[in-house]
C-alpha cells in the first residue's frame, strides 16, 4: 500500500484494515512534523496545487508527504498554521516527559508535584484540543468548562493515590498496584470528560448531533445517536492508549524487580518501558476504530429509518466522520 497512487479522495493506506490505519497514524504522529514551518508548508501546498492543476511527473512519495504535512500542521477551517507544540506530532515527545514524571514515586507521594503535573498535563491537552478543534468558531466558554472539569478530576483522582501511597511502605506489591492503576483511572476519566464536554453538542439531547451520510454519500441530516457512538469510540481510544504507558510498565516492575540490574536502577527501567509503551501503543489505539464509521439505520433516530436511496432501495447503513 505504500506505493498507492496519490489522490486527494482517499488516504495513503487502506483505512478499512487495522494494519492500514496503524501505518496511517504512525506517520501522522511522526515527531519530524514538528519541524514543518510556514515556509515549508507553503511549498507543500504549492506542490499539491501543481498536482491539482494537472501537472505530470510529480513524485508520488513527495505528494503524499506534502498532503500529510498540510493536513497535520494547518487547521482545516481557519487555515492557520498549528503551533508545533500543539500538533498531534508533539504527542509522543511531550508525553515522554509527562508520563514518567506523573508516574514517578517521588511525584505520587508529593501533593504539590502531583497537582502540578496533572495541571500541566490537562493544560497541554486543552491546548491541543483547541488548536485541533473542529471549528474556528468553537466558544471559549465550552473549552474552559472542559478544561476545568478535566483538571479537577485528574488532580482529585491522583491525590487519592497520593493519600493511599503515604500509608504504605514504598516498593511493596500493593503500593506498586495502586501507583499503576489509580492515576490511570484518574487521567483516563479526565480525558473522557474533557472530550465529552468539548463535543457535548454532538451527543447531548438538544444538541445538533453529527452529519450522517447514506450509502450514496448523500448527507441525510444530523444524528445525536451517531454522536454518542462517536463519543464512545473516541473515549475508548483514550483509555486504550493509556494502558501500555501508565499501567503495564508499573505492574511489570513487580516481576522485573527480581533482576539485580533492574532493582538497582528501577526508575530508568520504568521510564524506558513507559516510552516504549507510548511509541508502540498510541498508533494501534488510534487505529482501533476507523475515522469514518458506519452505523445501522435502526441504531439511529426514527427520522433516519425507512429512507430510500437514489435507486429506490432502502437505506440500511449510514456513515459519519468519527474524529479523534
TrEMBL record:
<dbReference type="GO" id="GO:0005743">
    <property type="term" value="C:mitochondrial inner membrane"/>
</dbReference>
<keyword id="KW-0813">Transport</keyword>
<keyword id="KW-0029">Amino-acid transport</keyword>
<keyword id="KW-1133">Transmembrane helix</keyword>
<dbReference type="GO" id="GO:0015075">
    <property type="term" value="F:monoatomic ion transmembrane transporter activity"/>
</dbReference>
<protein>
    <recommendedName>
        <fullName>Sidoreflexin</fullName>
    </recommendedName>
</protein>
<feature type="transmembrane region" description="Helical">
    <location>
        <begin position="177"/>
        <end position="198"/>
    </location>
</feature>
<dbReference type="Pfam" id="PF03820">
    <property type="entry name" value="SFXNs"/>
</dbReference>
<feature type="transmembrane region" description="Helical">
    <location>
        <begin position="146"/>
        <end position="165"/>
    </location>
</feature>
<dbReference type="GO" id="GO:1990542">
    <property type="term" value="P:mitochondrial transmembrane transport"/>
</dbReference>
<keyword id="KW-0496">Mitochondrion</keyword>
<keyword id="KW-0472">Membrane</keyword>
<dbReference type="GO" id="GO:0006865">
    <property type="term" value="P:amino acid transport"/>
</dbReference>
<dbReference type="InterPro" id="IPR004686">
    <property type="entry name" value="Mtc"/>
</dbReference>
<comment type="similarity">
    <text>Belongs to the sideroflexin family.</text>
</comment>
<keyword id="KW-0812">Transmembrane</keyword>
